Amino acid sequence: MIYVLICIMLVCGLVVYQLMPKLLSYSTSLISKKQDTSELTHDGITNVLTQLGHPKFEGVCYGFTLNWALAVAQGKESFFYRQLHHLRTHQFGLPKTLQQIKEKKERNQSLSNDEMVIDTLPQLGKKICVAQDPLQYKEKYRKLVWQPDINSILKAINADSSVAKHIFYKTHSFLNQDEATEYLELLKRTGIREDVAVIISTADHAMGFKLAGNVWRFININDLYQQDKNKPYFEFSSRNLVKELYRVCAENLQGSRLTVNTDFVSVNPEEKLSRALQNVFPVFPVRTKTSYPERLAFFSMAATQGDMNSVKKCIHSGWSIFSRQRLSDDSPILTAIYLGRRDVVRAMLSTSRHRVNQKRKSDSSTLLHIACRYGGSGIVEDLLNIRGIKIDPQDSKGRTPLMYACKKSVVTEDKKLFNLLFAKGASLSIKDNDGLTALDHALKNEHTLAIQMIEERLEKEACARENSTSRRFKFSETKGTLFQRGVKTISYQSQQPGFGMK
Fold first, then answer.
1. Degrees, nearest 5: CA angle 424-427-428
2. Could you tell me the residue ranges of all domains in the chain?
3. 311-332, pLDDT tens digit by residue?
């Protein structure tokens, strides 16, 4: 038995000995691949941002592309590409490199040209984050700003005297690649300038393109340095750019139809461009028979962008703001609420006010529930002004809109939100299925503002009840009954001066 164990141990040792060089080689290759500075991936950029102390983002395609667009509009495109080059080169040790540069500056030593560019990378990182998730940077904006609000974002990330603006936007739906190619050729014919950046986005991804000579320069954070190791962008003809867009957006296609938002950014207004694109090709065929997924994709994208012309066209064509006439997760009106699109929500509700209390299929929440959590006080105010809206509907867990507002977030950190609900009589005593009141939810979520406002409201209600009781008692004693005369000199308040809460 011992002999057998010894043999087994010898065989295992021999196998490990034979495999060790391969394992070490594989491990080394993994490390070298992991630290390949010839590539700059989307994950690589988010990792660098984390190294610089920013929140961990799942993705930063929108913030990245908007900063690229700003650079194009301000004539700083080449400098942006130099920044990307150094971000790629130093992505695995940027904090250390920045510390070395800081020490040189403290010693009054001059920096090389490359070091001066590297020294700007923290600022670029901050601007990408501020553009990617403006809600997280409420203090920077001094108001609630959602991602689609491009002008507010451009103003926040602009560090130059020339002010880039959101000069035009439109939701497009291309029937096929030929139609998309024709659109790009139309842009050329309108004389689009090289300092006009176009952000093209689907429901979950943003990219950018601009004219460069007779070709389109296309940038996609997911495919940097893929066409040329020295250039982070692609250069395509109109036909090839469309092929690339269809490849990248394959998961968002409805058959051969591609639905996207386009946002044009420039320092200079492009009135000729706006006139050429406003009411002409491509126009979504709302009057023809289109499939439900196609309608839903277009309506939701228009709501995302705030494209009011397209939104109104969909509404007037009888398209539902819900989903198949039911409120569900992919309803266009929910898209608008999640993104704080107050004007879009207002337009959508103009023809569906009678359905304002409809409940979502998944959790029985209403528009008011969702607006209290995600939409901001402006949308909540518009909803509460609709006649017949229920102030205390309960979802499948028994929670009211006020309880949703007690979930701490940037959106719910708003006194106006709570005052609106209180003014409409939102109940503080209703309990959910777990026996929790709104105050319990606020305490559970450590929502300090909600706790303060609910406690103040409870105190006011208690005082009001006390005063009401006092008035009723005084009135009864003064008036008397059939069997007893009233005594005008009795006052309940003078009998118990310390009863009221303070």
1. 130
2. 42-157
3. 998 998 888 898 776 788 889 9
